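Sat 14:20. Reprocessing the chain from the morning session after the first attempt stalled halfway. Input below, unchanged.
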Amino acid sequence: MKSFLIHIGTDFPAILFFIILLWCIRSTEAEENDLISKEDGLSLRGMAALLVLLHHLAPSTENGLLLPKFYSVGAGGIAVSLFFFLSGYGLQKQYIINGESYRKSFLKKRIPTILIPLALFTVLYWLVYYSIGKVYTIQDMVADIRIGVPFVAYSWYLIALLLFYLFFWISMSVFKEHTRWMPIAACGWYILYALTCIKLKYLIFWYDTAHLLPVGMFCAVHEKKILDVLKKRSSYSALVLTAFSCWLVISFVFAHIWPINIYLYYILSISHVFLSTVVIVLLHLKIKIGNPVLRYFGKNSMEIYLIHGLIFYLLRGDIFYLNNEPLYCLLSLSIVILIASILAPVDRFLLRSWKRIVK
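Finished this time. Tokens:
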């Protein structure tokens, strides 16, 4: 009985995730004019934020039947791929709608949406580490970047996103109204970025999901054509979803059972997250997820992403180790959500202040 309760307690976050995901789920009724609306994008970001939490929570637990599956199926990679896709789609669509005014304000207004939260959390991490006797210098932080382990846990995603943001601004300046060339150029940038990461011997997660940003840009540029094809040939959606799902299972089994070299593993990995994202987008056109909880997590997704590594470490790290697994799972998620909810308004205040300064 005690073992059963421990399993259920450990799996509680996973059970809660599925409850949240299924709450207010509905079929698509009205005709879609967008692949992903702004409101739907928030819900998808909220889902991705929760997937990242469960993915990183799972390896530090020994019990549970559902929670470990989030790590074994690569839920974190799928979530980050979705983040990249939504970023690429949103960037490109904003430029298509707003044109030159978006390009002119991009460096002043869009880049700080990454730099300000990253700076805030760098200070927070430093203060917390200092309070427990770990003093880091700027040289230490630079050294961490050189080996691909950023000072702020999991902030590699924001660093990669910042590089793609800078490229996107260059792309807007070069191609101007010829937006159809921008996703193609972004693919070239991704290849250069991936090769650089490989040269620096960064771990594969630095570059096996970032190709979804150019994919998102491509979908924004050719959105009308994509929607027209899906509407006219809607009967093929089930076939496509089935084929993609089969490949996901085959690639996953192949990558985790048979020994393969790093290059083949990379190909399987990028195809796995690419097809997973395609499946999510196709399903999203037929079945909508969305509720106040997912939208709330979506609004605070950056803060959730940046703080969770620190909280997980403090509860099960070098200084303190919470043995009670169900309590660890409950406290970890509760504290992450609480602190993210406190810091999100701080982030927004700093961004609003910055925008007033550069206006």
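Residues 153 and 310 are 7 Å apart (CA to CA).
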